[in-house]
Amino acid sequence: MRPATLPRARTRPTRSTRSTRSTRSTRITGLALTAVLGATLLAAAEGPATAGTTSAPVAAVAATTSAPAAGNRREDPPNRVTPGNFTGYGFDQCLAPTQAAMDTWLDHSPFLAVGIYISGDSRACRDQPNLTPAWVRTQLAKGWKLLPISLGPQASCQPRFPRYRDDFKISPFRGKGRYPRAREMGRDSAKSTVVDAQALGIVPGSTLWYDLEGFDLGNTDCRESALSFLSTWTTTVRGLGYVAGVYSSAGSGIKALDDARVQRPNAYVLPDRVWIARWDGVANDSTSYIRDDGWRPGGRVKQYRGGHDEVWGGVRINIDSNYLDVGHGSVAPMERHCGGVQITFRNYETIERSHEGYTDRPRKVRALQCLLTEQGFYTGKLSGRYETPTVRAVRAWKAKRGFFVDGRFFRRDWTALLSSGNKPVQKIGSSGVFTRRVQRAINASDIGVKATADGVYRGVTADTVRAYQRRVGLNPTGIVTAATWTKLQAGARER
Protein backbone atom coordinates (compact mmCIF):
# COMPACT_ATOMS: atom_id res chain seq x y z
CA MET A 1 0.00 0.00 0.00
CA ARG A 2 2.63 2.49 -1.04
CA PRO A 3 0.66 5.76 -1.30
CA ALA A 4 1.48 8.81 -3.34
CA THR A 5 4.76 10.48 -2.47
CA LEU A 6 4.48 13.24 0.11
CA PRO A 7 7.05 15.69 1.44
CA ARG A 8 9.29 14.03 3.99
CA ALA A 9 10.24 15.72 7.22
CA ARG A 10 13.65 17.32 7.19
CA THR A 11 14.38 16.35 10.77
CA ARG A 12 13.70 12.99 12.35
CA PRO A 13 11.90 12.84 15.69
CA THR A 14 14.19 12.58 18.67
CA ARG A 15 14.53 9.37 20.63
CA SER A 16 12.62 10.86 23.55
CA THR A 17 9.79 11.92 21.22
CA ARG A 18 9.55 8.41 19.80
CA SER A 19 9.48 6.78 23.23
CA THR A 20 7.01 9.06 25.00
CA ARG A 21 4.26 8.37 22.50
CA SER A 22 2.47 11.67 22.93
CA THR A 23 1.10 12.34 19.43
CA ARG A 24 -2.39 13.54 18.74
CA SER A 25 -3.53 10.12 17.50
CA THR A 26 -3.17 8.58 20.94
CA ARG A 27 -5.09 11.17 22.95
CA ILE A 28 -8.11 9.21 24.13
CA THR A 29 -10.80 11.00 26.07
CA GLY A 30 -11.70 9.77 29.54
CA LEU A 31 -15.08 8.46 28.41
CA ALA A 32 -13.72 6.54 25.45
CA LEU A 33 -10.81 5.23 27.50
CA THR A 34 -13.21 3.95 30.16
CA ALA A 35 -15.19 2.10 27.52
CA VAL A 36 -12.26 0.48 25.77
CA LEU A 37 -10.35 -0.43 28.90
CA GLY A 38 -13.46 -1.90 30.51
CA ALA A 39 -13.84 -4.15 27.51
CA THR A 40 -10.14 -5.00 27.59
CA LEU A 41 -10.31 -6.26 31.14
CA LEU A 42 -13.40 -8.30 30.36
CA ALA A 43 -11.80 -9.95 27.35
CA ALA A 44 -8.37 -10.39 28.91
CA ALA A 45 -9.82 -12.65 31.58
CA GLU A 46 -10.49 -15.21 28.85
CA GLY A 47 -6.97 -15.00 27.41
CA PRO A 48 -5.88 -14.38 23.83
CA ALA A 49 -7.05 -16.50 20.93
CA THR A 50 -4.64 -18.32 18.67
CA ALA A 51 -3.63 -17.20 15.21
CA GLY A 52 -6.39 -17.63 12.68
CA THR A 53 -9.21 -17.54 15.20
CA THR A 54 -11.76 -14.79 15.67
CA SER A 55 -12.78 -13.50 19.07
CA ALA A 56 -16.38 -12.61 19.85
CA PRO A 57 -17.34 -8.96 20.10
CA VAL A 58 -17.37 -7.53 23.59
CA ALA A 59 -20.79 -6.37 24.74
CA ALA A 60 -19.42 -3.32 26.54
CA VAL A 61 -17.82 -2.01 23.37
CA ALA A 62 -20.86 -2.85 21.25
CA ALA A 63 -22.97 -0.73 23.54
CA THR A 64 -20.73 2.28 23.03
CA THR A 65 -20.81 2.02 19.24
CA SER A 66 -24.45 1.27 18.51
CA ALA A 67 -26.35 3.28 21.12
CA PRO A 68 -28.01 6.41 19.72
CA ALA A 69 -27.20 9.84 21.08
CA ALA A 70 -29.58 11.20 23.71
CA GLY A 71 -32.54 12.91 22.14
CA ASN A 72 -32.50 10.96 18.87
CA ARG A 73 -36.01 10.31 17.69
CA ARG A 74 -35.24 6.83 16.43
CA GLU A 75 -32.50 4.28 16.89
CA ASP A 76 -30.68 3.35 13.71
CA PRO A 77 -29.78 -0.31 13.44
CA PRO A 78 -26.08 -0.94 14.09
CA ASN A 79 -23.77 -1.30 11.13
CA ARG A 80 -22.93 -4.80 10.02
CA VAL A 81 -19.64 -6.48 10.90
CA THR A 82 -17.09 -5.98 8.16
CA PRO A 83 -15.83 -7.73 6.14
CA GLY A 84 -17.58 -10.71 7.74
CA ASN A 85 -17.62 -13.87 5.63
CA PHE A 86 -16.45 -13.04 2.14
CA THR A 87 -14.67 -14.49 -0.87
CA GLY A 88 -14.12 -12.04 -3.70
CA TYR A 89 -12.26 -9.01 -4.99
CA GLY A 90 -11.35 -5.71 -3.38
CA PHE A 91 -9.31 -2.58 -3.89
CA ASP A 92 -7.59 -0.11 -1.64
CA GLN A 93 -6.69 3.52 -2.15
CA CYS A 94 -5.16 6.05 0.19
CA LEU A 95 -8.04 8.53 0.01
CA ALA A 96 -11.58 7.24 0.56
CA PRO A 97 -13.41 7.82 -2.76
CA THR A 98 -16.42 10.08 -3.11
CA GLN A 99 -19.89 8.59 -2.84
CA ALA A 100 -20.45 9.08 -6.57
CA ALA A 101 -17.26 7.15 -7.33
CA MET A 102 -18.20 4.36 -4.92
CA ASP A 103 -21.65 4.04 -6.48
CA THR A 104 -20.23 3.92 -10.00
CA TRP A 105 -17.66 1.30 -9.07
CA LEU A 106 -20.28 -0.76 -7.28
CA ASP A 107 -22.28 -0.91 -10.50
CA HIS A 108 -19.40 -1.46 -12.91
CA SER A 109 -16.26 -2.84 -11.25
CA PRO A 110 -15.56 -6.42 -10.13
CA PHE A 111 -14.77 -5.18 -6.60
CA LEU A 112 -17.00 -5.56 -3.56
CA ALA A 113 -14.44 -4.77 -0.82
CA VAL A 114 -12.51 -1.55 -0.23
CA GLY A 115 -9.57 -0.74 2.03
CA ILE A 116 -9.80 2.60 3.85
CA TYR A 117 -7.18 4.34 5.99
CA ILE A 118 -8.95 5.29 9.20
CA SER A 119 -6.10 5.77 11.66
CA GLY A 120 -2.37 6.23 12.23
CA ASP A 121 -0.04 9.20 12.25
CA SER A 122 2.13 7.79 9.45
CA ARG A 123 -0.60 7.44 6.80
CA ALA A 124 -0.14 9.68 3.79
CA CYS A 125 -3.83 10.56 3.73
CA ARG A 126 -4.28 12.03 7.20
CA ASP A 127 -7.06 14.27 5.89
CA GLN A 128 -10.01 12.20 4.71
CA PRO A 129 -12.76 14.62 3.61
CA ASN A 130 -15.06 11.82 2.44
CA LEU A 131 -14.55 9.44 5.35
CA THR A 132 -17.40 10.05 7.81
CA PRO A 133 -19.74 7.84 9.83
CA ALA A 134 -22.39 8.48 7.17
CA TRP A 135 -19.98 7.35 4.43
CA VAL A 136 -19.20 4.13 6.34
CA ARG A 137 -22.88 3.41 7.00
CA THR A 138 -23.80 4.05 3.37
CA GLN A 139 -21.14 1.75 1.92
CA LEU A 140 -22.05 -1.08 4.29
CA ALA A 141 -25.76 -0.67 3.52
CA LYS A 142 -25.04 -0.87 -0.20
CA GLY A 143 -23.09 -4.12 0.21
CA TRP A 144 -19.47 -2.99 0.28
CA LYS A 145 -17.10 -4.83 2.60
CA LEU A 146 -14.81 -2.36 4.36
CA LEU A 147 -11.21 -3.06 5.37
CA PRO A 148 -10.28 -0.39 7.95
CA ILE A 149 -6.51 0.24 7.98
CA SER A 150 -4.21 1.90 10.49
CA LEU A 151 -0.75 3.06 9.44
CA GLY A 152 1.12 4.10 12.55
CA PRO A 153 4.72 3.55 13.70
CA GLN A 154 6.79 1.61 11.21
CA ALA A 155 9.71 -0.78 11.62
CA SER A 156 12.86 0.95 12.85
CA CYS A 157 14.81 -0.01 9.71
CA GLN A 158 12.10 1.09 7.24
CA PRO A 159 13.85 3.74 5.14
CA ARG A 160 10.79 5.74 3.98
CA PHE A 161 9.60 6.69 7.45
CA PRO A 162 9.06 8.85 9.45
CA ARG A 163 6.92 10.76 6.99
CA TYR A 164 6.23 13.88 9.07
CA ARG A 165 7.76 15.76 11.98
CA ASP A 166 5.31 14.29 14.48
CA ASP A 167 5.28 10.61 13.56
CA PHE A 168 7.97 8.12 14.44
CA LYS A 169 9.19 4.55 14.15
CA ILE A 170 8.87 1.52 16.38
CA SER A 171 11.49 1.70 19.11
CA PRO A 172 14.23 -0.94 18.60
CA PHE A 173 15.25 -0.68 22.27
CA ARG A 174 15.78 -4.27 23.36
CA GLY A 175 15.55 -3.85 27.11
CA LYS A 176 15.76 -7.35 28.59
CA GLY A 177 14.92 -8.91 25.25
CA ARG A 178 11.23 -8.02 25.40
CA TYR A 179 11.36 -4.69 23.51
CA PRO A 180 9.24 -2.91 26.14
CA ARG A 181 8.93 0.39 24.33
CA ALA A 182 7.77 -1.31 21.13
CA ARG A 183 5.16 -3.22 23.11
CA GLU A 184 3.90 -0.06 24.77
CA MET A 185 3.67 1.63 21.39
CA GLY A 186 1.67 -1.32 20.07
CA ARG A 187 -0.85 -1.03 22.90
CA ASP A 188 -1.24 2.72 22.43
CA SER A 189 -1.63 2.39 18.67
CA ALA A 190 -4.29 -0.31 19.08
CA LYS A 191 -6.33 1.83 21.48
CA SER A 192 -6.13 4.75 19.08
CA THR A 193 -7.20 2.54 16.18
CA VAL A 194 -10.23 1.22 18.07
CA VAL A 195 -11.34 4.71 19.11
CA ASP A 196 -11.04 5.89 15.49
CA ALA A 197 -12.99 2.83 14.29
CA GLN A 198 -15.73 3.43 16.85
CA ALA A 199 -16.01 7.08 15.83
CA LEU A 200 -16.75 5.97 12.27
CA GLY A 201 -19.31 3.36 13.32
CA ILE A 202 -17.15 0.32 12.60
CA VAL A 203 -18.61 -2.19 15.02
CA PRO A 204 -16.94 -4.84 17.19
CA GLY A 205 -16.43 -8.13 15.40
CA SER A 206 -15.02 -6.25 12.41
CA THR A 207 -11.43 -6.73 11.33
CA LEU A 208 -9.00 -3.85 11.90
CA TRP A 209 -5.79 -3.99 9.88
CA TYR A 210 -2.34 -2.69 10.79
CA ASP A 211 -0.23 -1.65 7.80
CA LEU A 212 3.42 -2.51 8.47
CA GLU A 213 5.38 -1.59 5.37
CA GLY A 214 8.27 -3.75 4.19
CA PHE A 215 11.55 -3.79 6.13
CA ASP A 216 14.90 -5.59 6.35
CA LEU A 217 14.06 -9.04 7.71
CA GLY A 218 17.72 -9.67 8.50
CA ASN A 219 17.94 -6.80 10.99
CA THR A 220 17.28 -8.59 14.26
CA ASP A 221 16.27 -5.67 16.46
CA CYS A 222 14.18 -4.18 13.69
CA ARG A 223 12.36 -7.49 13.10
CA GLU A 224 11.89 -8.44 16.76
CA SER A 225 10.72 -4.99 17.84
CA ALA A 226 8.21 -4.99 14.97
CA LEU A 227 6.91 -8.42 16.06
CA SER A 228 6.69 -7.19 19.64
CA PHE A 229 4.72 -4.16 18.52
CA LEU A 230 2.32 -6.29 16.47
CA SER A 231 1.92 -8.75 19.34
CA THR A 232 0.58 -6.16 21.78
CA TRP A 233 -1.36 -4.39 19.01
CA THR A 234 -3.09 -7.70 18.26
CA THR A 235 -3.78 -8.50 21.92
CA THR A 236 -5.25 -5.06 22.57
CA VAL A 237 -7.40 -4.90 19.43
CA ARG A 238 -8.69 -8.41 20.09
CA GLY A 239 -9.38 -7.60 23.73
CA LEU A 240 -11.48 -4.62 22.66
CA GLY A 241 -13.79 -6.88 20.68
CA TYR A 242 -12.33 -6.58 17.19
CA VAL A 243 -10.56 -9.03 14.90
CA ALA A 244 -6.85 -8.24 14.41
CA GLY A 245 -5.30 -8.27 10.95
CA VAL A 246 -1.84 -7.32 9.72
CA TYR A 247 -0.88 -6.11 6.25
CA SER A 248 2.74 -6.40 5.16
CA SER A 249 4.93 -7.56 2.32
CA ALA A 250 5.10 -11.30 1.76
CA GLY A 251 8.89 -11.34 2.06
CA SER A 252 9.23 -9.32 5.26
CA GLY A 253 6.41 -8.76 7.76
CA ILE A 254 4.24 -11.69 6.68
CA LYS A 255 7.19 -14.07 6.48
CA ALA A 256 8.37 -12.92 9.93
CA LEU A 257 4.91 -13.65 11.36
CA ASP A 258 4.74 -17.07 9.71
CA ASP A 259 8.24 -18.02 10.87
CA ALA A 260 7.30 -17.02 14.41
CA ARG A 261 4.10 -19.08 14.11
CA VAL A 262 6.03 -22.23 13.24
CA GLN A 263 9.42 -21.80 14.88
CA ARG A 264 8.48 -19.86 18.05
CA PRO A 265 4.77 -20.44 18.61
CA ASN A 266 4.77 -19.03 22.15
CA ALA A 267 6.94 -15.98 21.54
CA TYR A 268 4.31 -13.61 20.15
CA VAL A 269 0.56 -13.27 19.89
CA LEU A 270 -0.17 -13.55 16.19
CA PRO A 271 -2.93 -11.78 14.24
CA ASP A 272 -6.19 -13.46 13.35
CA ARG A 273 -5.77 -12.59 9.68
CA VAL A 274 -2.98 -11.56 7.34
CA TRP A 275 -3.05 -9.32 4.28
CA ILE A 276 -0.21 -10.40 2.02
CA ALA A 277 1.38 -7.91 -0.36
CA ARG A 278 2.60 -10.11 -3.21
CA TRP A 279 2.35 -8.39 -6.56
CA ASP A 280 2.44 -11.46 -8.77
CA GLY A 281 -0.74 -10.61 -10.69
CA VAL A 282 -2.48 -13.80 -9.55
CA ALA A 283 -5.84 -13.26 -7.87
CA ASN A 284 -5.73 -15.90 -5.14
CA ASP A 285 -4.58 -16.13 -1.52
CA SER A 286 -1.38 -18.08 -2.20
CA THR A 287 2.29 -17.17 -1.94
CA SER A 288 5.47 -19.22 -1.68
CA TYR A 289 6.78 -16.91 1.06
CA ILE A 290 4.69 -18.54 3.77
CA ARG A 291 3.52 -22.07 4.50
CA ASP A 292 0.27 -23.33 3.04
CA ASP A 293 -1.41 -23.96 6.39
CA GLY A 294 -0.89 -20.48 7.82
CA TRP A 295 -4.09 -18.49 8.36
CA ARG A 296 -6.16 -20.98 6.41
CA PRO A 297 -9.02 -21.37 5.93
CA GLY A 298 -10.54 -17.95 6.08
CA GLY A 299 -7.66 -15.80 7.28
CA ARG A 300 -5.99 -14.42 4.18
CA VAL A 301 -6.17 -11.41 1.91
CA LYS A 302 -3.69 -11.04 -0.92
CA GLN A 303 -2.76 -7.79 -2.60
CA TYR A 304 -1.84 -9.21 -5.98
CA ARG A 305 -1.26 -5.99 -7.90
CA GLY A 306 0.27 -2.72 -6.75
CA GLY A 307 -0.61 0.88 -7.59
CA HIS A 308 -2.23 1.34 -11.00
CA ASP A 309 -5.15 3.21 -12.55
CA GLU A 310 -8.43 1.49 -13.34
CA VAL A 311 -11.47 3.03 -14.99
CA TRP A 312 -14.96 1.68 -14.33
CA GLY A 313 -18.09 3.45 -15.50
CA GLY A 314 -15.94 6.38 -16.59
CA VAL A 315 -14.45 6.90 -13.10
CA ARG A 316 -10.67 6.59 -12.76
CA ILE A 317 -9.08 5.62 -9.42
CA ASN A 318 -5.49 4.68 -8.62
CA ILE A 319 -5.72 1.43 -6.64
CA ASP A 320 -4.07 -1.73 -5.40
CA SER A 321 -5.98 -4.91 -6.29
CA ASN A 322 -6.80 -7.58 -3.72
CA TYR A 323 -8.33 -11.03 -3.41
CA LEU A 324 -10.06 -11.94 -0.13
CA ASP A 325 -11.00 -15.25 1.45
CA VAL A 326 -12.02 -14.41 5.01
CA GLY A 327 -14.23 -15.93 7.65
CA HIS A 328 -16.27 -18.77 6.20
CA GLY A 329 -16.03 -17.23 2.75
CA SER A 330 -19.13 -15.99 0.93
CA VAL A 331 -21.91 -18.16 2.30
CA ALA A 332 -25.68 -17.86 2.37
CA PRO A 333 -27.78 -18.84 5.38
CA MET A 334 -30.46 -21.42 4.87
CA GLU A 335 -33.85 -20.05 3.86
CA ARG A 336 -37.22 -21.22 5.12
CA HIS A 337 -40.47 -20.23 3.44
CA CYS A 338 -43.99 -20.79 4.73
CA GLY A 339 -42.96 -23.37 7.29
CA GLY A 340 -40.74 -25.35 4.93
CA VAL A 341 -42.35 -25.08 1.47
CA GLN A 342 -39.88 -25.71 -1.36
CA ILE A 343 -39.63 -22.78 -3.74
CA THR A 344 -36.35 -23.65 -5.51
CA PHE A 345 -36.57 -25.71 -8.71
CA ARG A 346 -34.47 -26.08 -11.83
CA ASN A 347 -37.55 -25.44 -13.97
CA TYR A 348 -40.69 -23.39 -13.40
CA GLU A 349 -43.36 -24.59 -15.82
CA THR A 350 -46.67 -22.92 -16.63
CA ILE A 351 -49.37 -23.45 -13.98
CA GLU A 352 -53.02 -23.73 -14.98
CA ARG A 353 -56.21 -25.42 -13.91
CA SER A 354 -56.40 -29.19 -14.26
CA HIS A 355 -57.64 -30.40 -17.62
CA GLU A 356 -57.18 -33.34 -19.94
CA GLY A 357 -53.61 -33.60 -21.19
CA TYR A 358 -52.20 -31.31 -18.49
CA THR A 359 -50.02 -32.72 -15.71
CA ASP A 360 -50.75 -31.20 -12.34
CA ARG A 361 -47.73 -29.82 -10.46
CA PRO A 362 -48.72 -29.71 -6.78
CA ARG A 363 -45.21 -28.84 -5.48
CA LYS A 364 -44.96 -25.87 -7.82
CA VAL A 365 -48.50 -24.80 -6.97
CA ARG A 366 -47.58 -24.84 -3.27
CA ALA A 367 -44.50 -22.75 -4.08
CA LEU A 368 -46.70 -20.29 -5.95
CA GLN A 369 -49.18 -20.15 -3.08
CA CYS A 370 -46.35 -19.58 -0.62
CA LEU A 371 -44.77 -16.73 -2.64
CA LEU A 372 -48.14 -15.06 -3.14
CA THR A 373 -48.78 -15.40 0.59
CA GLU A 374 -45.44 -13.72 1.39
CA GLN A 375 -46.32 -10.86 -0.94
CA GLY A 376 -49.80 -10.41 0.51
CA PHE A 377 -51.95 -11.70 -2.36
CA TYR A 378 -53.05 -15.08 -1.03
CA THR A 379 -54.54 -16.01 2.35
CA GLY A 380 -55.73 -19.56 1.75
CA LYS A 381 -54.25 -22.95 2.56
CA LEU A 382 -51.03 -24.12 0.92
CA SER A 383 -52.92 -27.00 -0.65
CA GLY A 384 -50.95 -27.56 -3.82
CA ARG A 385 -54.23 -27.39 -5.79
CA TYR A 386 -54.70 -24.71 -8.42
CA GLU A 387 -58.25 -23.76 -7.66
CA THR A 388 -60.37 -20.61 -7.49
CA PRO A 389 -58.72 -18.93 -4.43
CA THR A 390 -55.25 -19.32 -5.97
CA VAL A 391 -56.42 -18.24 -9.42
CA ARG A 392 -58.02 -15.15 -7.86
CA ALA A 393 -54.71 -14.30 -6.16
CA VAL A 394 -52.80 -14.81 -9.42
CA ARG A 395 -55.14 -12.46 -11.27
CA ALA A 396 -54.75 -9.82 -8.54
CA TRP A 397 -50.96 -10.14 -8.64
CA LYS A 398 -50.89 -9.78 -12.44
CA ALA A 399 -53.14 -6.74 -12.32
CA LYS A 400 -50.88 -5.13 -9.73
CA ARG A 401 -47.84 -5.76 -11.93
CA GLY A 402 -49.54 -4.44 -15.05
CA PHE A 403 -49.35 -7.84 -16.77
CA PHE A 404 -52.06 -9.29 -19.01
CA VAL A 405 -54.61 -10.76 -16.61
CA ASP A 406 -55.75 -14.33 -17.03
CA GLY A 407 -55.90 -17.46 -14.90
CA ARG A 408 -52.61 -19.04 -15.95
CA PHE A 409 -49.15 -18.50 -14.52
CA PHE A 410 -46.41 -18.48 -17.16
CA ARG A 411 -42.59 -18.56 -17.05
CA ARG A 412 -42.59 -14.80 -17.45
CA ASP A 413 -44.72 -14.53 -14.33
CA TRP A 414 -42.45 -16.88 -12.38
CA THR A 415 -39.42 -14.75 -13.36
CA ALA A 416 -41.08 -11.58 -12.13
CA LEU A 417 -42.48 -13.12 -8.94
CA LEU A 418 -39.20 -14.77 -7.91
CA SER A 419 -37.22 -11.54 -8.38
CA SER A 420 -39.70 -9.22 -6.63
CA GLY A 421 -38.38 -6.90 -3.94
CA ASN A 422 -35.46 -4.54 -3.46
CA LYS A 423 -32.75 -4.20 -6.10
CA PRO A 424 -29.29 -4.24 -4.49
CA VAL A 425 -26.24 -4.74 -6.68
CA GLN A 426 -25.15 -8.38 -6.88
CA LYS A 427 -21.75 -9.51 -8.12
CA ILE A 428 -19.03 -12.05 -7.37
CA GLY A 429 -18.75 -12.26 -3.58
CA SER A 430 -22.39 -11.38 -2.89
CA SER A 431 -24.45 -13.89 -0.98
CA GLY A 432 -27.84 -14.31 0.62
CA VAL A 433 -31.48 -13.81 -0.24
CA PHE A 434 -30.96 -11.41 -3.14
CA THR A 435 -28.48 -13.69 -4.87
CA ARG A 436 -30.97 -16.54 -4.54
CA ARG A 437 -33.66 -14.35 -6.10
CA VAL A 438 -31.43 -13.72 -9.10
CA GLN A 439 -30.56 -17.40 -9.47
CA ARG A 440 -34.18 -18.60 -9.20
CA ALA A 441 -35.50 -15.90 -11.52
CA ILE A 442 -33.00 -16.68 -14.28
CA ASN A 443 -33.77 -20.37 -13.95
CA ALA A 444 -37.46 -19.52 -14.33
CA SER A 445 -36.77 -17.46 -17.46
CA ASP A 446 -35.66 -20.69 -19.18
CA ILE A 447 -33.09 -19.05 -21.48
CA GLY A 448 -31.00 -22.21 -21.83
CA VAL A 449 -28.61 -21.76 -18.91
CA LYS A 450 -29.17 -22.63 -15.27
CA ALA A 451 -27.74 -21.48 -11.96
CA THR A 452 -27.59 -23.44 -8.73
CA ALA A 453 -29.76 -21.42 -6.35
CA ASP A 454 -27.39 -21.71 -3.39
CA GLY A 455 -27.35 -17.97 -2.64
CA VAL A 456 -23.63 -17.51 -3.39
CA TYR A 457 -22.59 -15.36 -6.35
CA ARG A 458 -19.66 -17.19 -7.92
CA GLY A 459 -18.24 -17.19 -11.43
CA VAL A 460 -20.90 -19.59 -12.73
CA THR A 461 -23.67 -17.26 -11.56
CA ALA A 462 -21.90 -14.32 -13.21
CA ASP A 463 -21.78 -16.33 -16.46
CA THR A 464 -25.48 -17.12 -16.17
CA VAL A 465 -26.26 -13.45 -15.59
CA ARG A 466 -24.22 -12.48 -18.65
CA ALA A 467 -26.20 -14.93 -20.76
CA TYR A 468 -29.45 -13.44 -19.48
CA GLN A 469 -28.23 -9.88 -20.06
CA ARG A 470 -27.33 -10.70 -23.67
CA ARG A 471 -30.73 -12.32 -24.17
CA VAL A 472 -32.65 -9.26 -22.99
CA GLY A 473 -30.42 -6.66 -24.67
CA LEU A 474 -28.31 -5.44 -21.75
CA ASN A 475 -24.55 -4.95 -21.57
CA PRO A 476 -23.27 -8.39 -20.42
CA THR A 477 -21.27 -7.31 -17.36
CA GLY A 478 -22.18 -10.24 -15.12
CA ILE A 479 -23.18 -7.69 -12.45
CA VAL A 480 -26.82 -7.39 -11.43
CA THR A 481 -27.61 -3.68 -11.23
CA ALA A 482 -30.96 -1.89 -11.25
CA ALA A 483 -31.24 -2.36 -15.02
CA THR A 484 -31.00 -6.16 -14.74
CA TRP A 485 -33.38 -6.25 -11.77
CA THR A 486 -35.88 -4.20 -13.79
CA LYS A 487 -35.75 -6.71 -16.64
CA LEU A 488 -36.19 -9.64 -14.26
CA GLN A 489 -39.07 -8.01 -12.41
CA ALA A 490 -40.75 -7.30 -15.73
CA GLY A 491 -40.45 -10.99 -16.56
CA ALA A 492 -38.29 -10.26 -19.61
CA ARG A 493 -37.05 -13.37 -21.42
CA GLU A 494 -35.82 -11.79 -24.66
CA ARG A 495 -35.15 -8.41 -26.23
UniProtKB/TrEMBL annotation:
InterPro entries: GH (IPR017853), Peptidoglycan-bd-like (IPR002477), PGBD-like_sf (IPR036365), PGBDSf (IPR036366), Rv2525c-like_Glyco_Hydro-like (IPR015020). Residues 1-26 are annotated as: Disordered. Residues 105-323 form the Rv2525c-like glycoside hydrolase-like domain. Residues 16-26 have a biased composition (Low complexity). This is DUF1906 domain-containing protein. Residues 364-408, 438-488 form the Peptidoglycan binding-like domain. It comes from the Bacteria. It comes from Nocardioides marinquilinus. It holds the Pfam family PG_binding_1.
